[in-house]
Each structure stands twice: as structure tokens, then as C-alpha cells.
Amino acid sequence: MLSFRFFWRFILLTGVAGSFLLPVVNAAEAGYAPGVVALFSTPDVWPWGYSGQGGKPAGMLPDLIGRLSVVAGIPVNNRLRPHRRAIRELETGEADFVPLFQSPVNDQAGIRVGLITRVRILLTSLAGDHPPASMDDLAGQAVGFIRGTYYGPAFEQADRVDKIPVDGLTQAVEMLRLGRIDALVSSDQALYHTLAAMDLPVAAFHTRTVIASQAAWLYMSRRAKHPQLLEPVRAAMQQLRESGELDEIFRLPR
Hints:
This protein is α/β, with parallel strands linked by helices. The protein folds into 2 domains: 4-116 and 216-249, Periplasmic binding protein-like II (D-Maltodextrin-Binding Protein, domain 2); 119-213, 3-Layer(aba) Sandwich (D-Maltodextrin-Binding Protein, domain 2), CATH 3.40.190.10. The chain contains 10 helices and 10 strands. It has helices at residues 4-14, 17-20, 60-72, 83-92, 104-109, 153-156, 169-177, 188-197, 230-243, 245-249, and strands at 38-43, 50-51, 57-58, 76-81, 97-101, 110-126, 142-146, 162-166, 183-187, 205-221. The strands form 3 sheets. It has a 6-stranded mixed β-sheet. It has a two-stranded parallel ribbon with strand order 1-4. The chain is elongated, with a radius of gyration of 19 Å. The protein starts with a helix and ends in a 5-residue tail after the last helix.
């Protein structure tokens, strides 16, 4: 018998779910004008979004956006963007929709369409070290983080920590292993996917210190060019959550 996880992978790859698992949202009744293309900007942050085969967007967020297109019955143009540019396009309305972690800046620029997932923000160190219980335990020490990412008030207010920005979590993990930083901060999603891709055991790291919990939301820009798309996309998000497909897309690797 096929495993549940394999079943959902088949669904994601084939798009069969749109035809027999979930009803398609009646976009016309929700105010959608035929011919309008929803503009998405996805932060280029692995494993959430990255350039895949043929340069096409790949990762968990493009998987979600592809399913939203099918379930809502709306064509989409999904573009990978550097993290800061994705936020900027939410602010300006150059993108209709941008998936981002909740933050005061993003709440001001966008309307929350639907909850994507919740993540734990982990303060990770090497397993052999004395594990820090909080950011305060790392005063005067170096902590890596992905530049431009909001990790909650505990990290933002840790003024006595030497914060080292990096472009990707693989770089931060290597720096930690080489002793160039003392710890790193990341979401559990990014950390577990990165360790799996690097073929590193989770047991080699202390990952039990949680400094925050964060929600990832799909935002619509308050200056969106196509505000009529809000309700059909919101309805599609709700259908994916109720079916369990949304949770499966963002399941942590084992």
C-alpha cells in the first residue's frame, strides 16, 4: 500500500487533487475577472523557494502557489525574488501576493490572506557545546542568521550578541561546524531541510532551544493591482487546509 506521504507527493506532482479531491472555487462568483493573472513574488530562500530545473521556481512555496492556482481556477505568474525585494514588492503592489513570515512591516504593507504554517525559531549550537538556554547566554558571541529575515523580538533585541548575516543556511551550518560562529538562528523548517540536504544528523546539533514561534502567511499587497483576487485565493487556502494538503506540503523531514 502506498504511504500517505507518497500519496500526497503524487498529488502534488500530478495536480490530480484539483480534479477529484477538492472542488474548484467559483472564482467568477468571488469577483474574479477572466484573463487576470495573479502576480506572486516568492522569496528566494531555500527550501521555501529556489530556482529548480530549467530555472523554474521550486520548493514548498511554489508547490503551494501551484495548488492555489488549480483550486482557485486562476492563472498565476510566480517570480522568485531576493527576500528584501519580495518585501518591497508587497509594499509597492508590484506583486499581488507574497508569502512571508509575519512581522510588523509585513502587516503594515499587506493583508493576511491565509495562514501557511507555523514554525519554531531555533537557537542551534553544536551538540558537544553547553547549549544556550536563550539569546542572553550568547552575550559577546557570534550568532549566524539569514540576512533580512525577522526572527522575533528576542533576536531583534539581543544587542549584546554579535549577529553575523549570511546568504543561506548551508553557509551558517558550515561556519558553526568550523567554529567561526557559536550558534545560529533559523526556523525549524530551514534547519531540518538543510541538514537533510547536507546529509548531517540532527543529533550532531543542539536544536531544543526555541526562542520564538512564527507564523508564515500569504499576504496580499494593500496596493495590489488585482484586489478582486483576495476572496477566491482566500477560499482556496481554506480548502487546502481543510483537506490536509497544506500540512503535507510543509511537513518537516524525518
